[in-house]
């Protein structure tokens, strides 16, 4: 008998699940796009996807990235092709500090940045550094489902605070903290998407930011501000100061990414915070850092001014897409929905009229040829899924398809409202 067959006989007796970590046992594999749709639904026409938060594919800066990559690799030194260390390429962190100081009036240096595998990787590293099993993370309700998976994978309890049009309901926050702490459980992190929220599209007001900073500091809880979309304000939008700049990084860690401002496939993001926080993260980072070659390419892309002009262009493009979708929704969906037009980011959070079930509308929309998630996907806890929403991401679809997408949503709403479409239970 070969060794492989011998081992097969032995291992087939074992339960591999039993060896899995507690996090792996607890989580299903899932994915950010697992929206609980019935498997047998088929679009009747080629679908338009308003699904994920992905940048416009046509305007990706391919030529400029090729030039930056070529300049990065065509050098005497082997540095871009050698291990780069856990904190990441200094020149890129330097460029980022310069951009932060210029755009936000902050006063930070390369030492306030650590480069990661996207902002998802940044959040995972923050969890490694600060969470022990059984700790609590407070999130907004709704919130980005990918981050919730990360918190739960680190065996944290996720407790939520609702949002309204001004962001997290900070008037409810302290009670939530006290409820958790009364049971002897530690709240370690408050996770917010303060600017251009996913999924809700809103931005936290300055008053709420102040209140959040004060409450978190009083209870010695770190704020994690997910800034995935915050660079993508529409040209006429002005924003309140970001939480890191307001606090000068006292008690605030922000995470950011090149995914939304350039391309999700880069897998480069960052943690921005007090250098002592970065030190904790480095103690718990075991992957030997990210690709120095990509860091060199991005540093070149930034120092040559390409990132600035690309972001400028994207702000205008996403404003146009958002307006096209909003106009379409007003024309074709008026009786069935309300929405607040975002001022940046990728998402329109649509409220369905009372009685229109979001999951049914989502499913009818698939048949009509429109893919978009129902609001349930963004609620961390099953018993709190009090949503009447679906989320429409206008970033990736073609500008010229957004009117048709609205028509399809209008037809889906009508079919659900008239009872022509019902979801098989
Ligand atoms: C709010 C938010 N945070 C983080 C991420 C993860 O992005 P990435 O890891 O590509 O930077 C996403 C992606 O959709 C997001 O919407």
Structure, described:
This protein has 425 residues and is an alpha/beta fold. The strands form 3 sheets. It has an 8-stranded mixed sheet with strand order 2-9-8-7-6-3-4-5, with helices on both faces. Strands 10-11-13 form a 3-stranded antiparallel sheet. Helix 8 links the parallel strand 6 and strand 7. The longest helix has 27 residues. The chain is globular, with a radius of gyration of 23 Å. Bound molecules: pyridoxal-5'-phosphate (PLP).
Task: Offer a few descriptive terms.
425 residues, Aspartate Aminotransferase, domain 2, single chain, Aspartate Aminotransferase, domain 1, 2 domains, 3-stranded antiparallel beta sheet, alpha/beta, globular, binds pyridoxal-5'-phosphate, 14 helices
Task: Give a summary of the structure in a few sentences.
This protein has helices at residues 3-11, 22-26, 62-73, 90-104, 118-130, 145-153, 170-182, 206-218, 243-247, 275-283, 292-303, 306-332, 358-368, 402-417; strands at 48-49, 113-116, 136-141, 157-164, 167-168, 187-192, 222-226, 252-257, 269-272, 337-338, 347-352, 370-371, 389-393. The chain is of the alpha/beta class.
């Amino acid at each position: 008998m070969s060794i492989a067959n011998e081992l097969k006989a032995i291992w087939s007796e074992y339960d591999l699940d039993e060896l899995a970590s507690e996090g792996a046992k607890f989580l299903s594999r899932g994915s950010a796009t697992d929206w609980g749709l019935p498997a047998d639904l088929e679009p009747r026409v080629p679908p338009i996807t308003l699904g994920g938060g992905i940048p416009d594919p046509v305007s990706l800066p391919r030529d400029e990235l090729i030039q930056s990559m070529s300049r990065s690799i065509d050098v005497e030194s082997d540095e871009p092709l050698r291990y780069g260390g856990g904190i990441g390429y200094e020149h890129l962190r330097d460029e980022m500090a310069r951009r932060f100081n210029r755009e936000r009036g902050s006063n930070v240096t390369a030492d306030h940045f650590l480069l990661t595998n996207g902002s998802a990787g940044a959040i995972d590293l923050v969890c490694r550094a600060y969470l022990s099993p059984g700790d609590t993370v407070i999130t907004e309700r709704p919130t980005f489902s990918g981050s919730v998976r990360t918190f739960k994978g680190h065996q944290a309890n996720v407790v939520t605070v609702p949002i309204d049009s001004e962001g997290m309901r900070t008037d409810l926050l302290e009670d939530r903290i006290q409820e958790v702490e009364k049971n002897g459980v530690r709240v370690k992190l408050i996770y917010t998407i303060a600017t251009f929220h996913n999924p809700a599209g809103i931005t936290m007001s300055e008053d709420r930011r102040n209140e959040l900073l004060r409450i978190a500091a009083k209870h010695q809880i770190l704020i994690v501000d997910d800034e995935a979309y915050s660079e993508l304000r529409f040209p006429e939008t002005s924003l309140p100061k970001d939480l890191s700049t307001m606090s000068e990084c006292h008690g605030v860690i922000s995470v950011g990414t090149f995914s939304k401002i350039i391309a999700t496939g880069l897998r480069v993001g960052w943690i921005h915070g007090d250098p002592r926080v970065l030190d904790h993260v480095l103690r718990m980072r075991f992957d030997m850092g990210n690709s120095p070659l990509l860091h060199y390419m991005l540093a070149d892309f930034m120092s040559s001014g390409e990132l600035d002009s690309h972001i400028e262009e994207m702000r205008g493009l996403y404003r146009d897409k958002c307006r096209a979708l909003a106009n379409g929704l007003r024309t074709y969906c008026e009786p069935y929905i309300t929405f607040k037009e975002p001022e940046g980011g990728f998402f329109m959070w649509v409220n369905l009229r009372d009685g229109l079930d979001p999951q049914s509308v989502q499913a009818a929309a698939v048949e009509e040829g429109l893919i978009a998630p129902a609001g349930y996907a963004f609620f961390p806890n099953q018993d709190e899924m009090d949503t009447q929403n679906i989320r429409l991401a206008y970033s990736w679809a073609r500008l010229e398809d957004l009117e048709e997408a609205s028509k399809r949503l209008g037809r889906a709403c009508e079919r659900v409202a008239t009872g022509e479409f019902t979801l098989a239970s």
